[in-house]
Amino acid sequence: MARKIIIDTDPGQDDAVAILLALASPELDVLGITCVAGNVPLALTSRNARVVCELAGRTEVPIFAGCDRPLERKLVTAEYVHGKTGLDGIALPEPEMALQERHAVDFLIETLRSEPAGSVTLCPLGPLTNIATALQRAPDIAARISEIVLMGGAYFEVGNTTPAAEFNIHVDPQAAEIVFRSGVPLVVMPLDVTHKALTTRARVEAFRNLGTPVGHAVASWTDFFERFDMAKYGSEGAPLHDPCVIAYLLKPDLFTGRHINVEIETTSELTMGMTVADWWRVTDRAPNAMFMGDVDAAGFYALLTERLARL
Fold it and tell me: Where does the Inosine/uridine-preferring nucleoside hydrolase domain lie (predicted)?
């Protein structure tokens, strides 16, 4: 039986690859895609999600626009990484499929209340504003969520947006705090993992050599956004952050980590949005997250290429 998931996202080239991986995998039943402001503003993230579903030929997947700003802070975006549309790199047609009329938060609450308890996994790939808003408005849903598998945070890799904070958590630290304190089982894919899943020329060309519209799009997207990270980190390629979330659902043994306590910094401007991960278990704070530390990068890219070939 396919695992029911909701993807909460701010596409983003790496978000787009994660959505494609999910849509290509029969083990996963994508109940809907909820969009949030993050990499680019909400109007573009909700456009980009539809572009990706049309590219995959999956126009039946419902897409919902959600929160257009963080809970308490001004929106910070990342056009400098993802380009002005968020999906720069290849020209794709404007989407024809419609956005759903319901707000993403309403969809999250109603779906979690109507599906059997413990049957839906949430997969946030961007700032956690939609998820936190749903938990605040409907505290009863926390007990109904199977688990939340998210991309965000960092510990050994520290920050990619400030010296201390990773982008998704930095954009809405207050939302992240609500999610990390919700009691819902959490699996976290931090930069510590995603920076070990770097594109290489061979890996990008493997996407291109699929010879399909999806393969060309993924190769073009990775070509575009890897330039930024290669210049910044001096690395051979760029991390494909968000597909790690979907890969974990498909092949959890690709990843290793520790069940530890993770707190979110929300008071210090210096370290705002830092994920304070008790990796060495030096406090007596109760563990609240499976915080991943390593990935089998070759296995990850093999899975990604094999699945994308199906679209």
Answer: 5-301
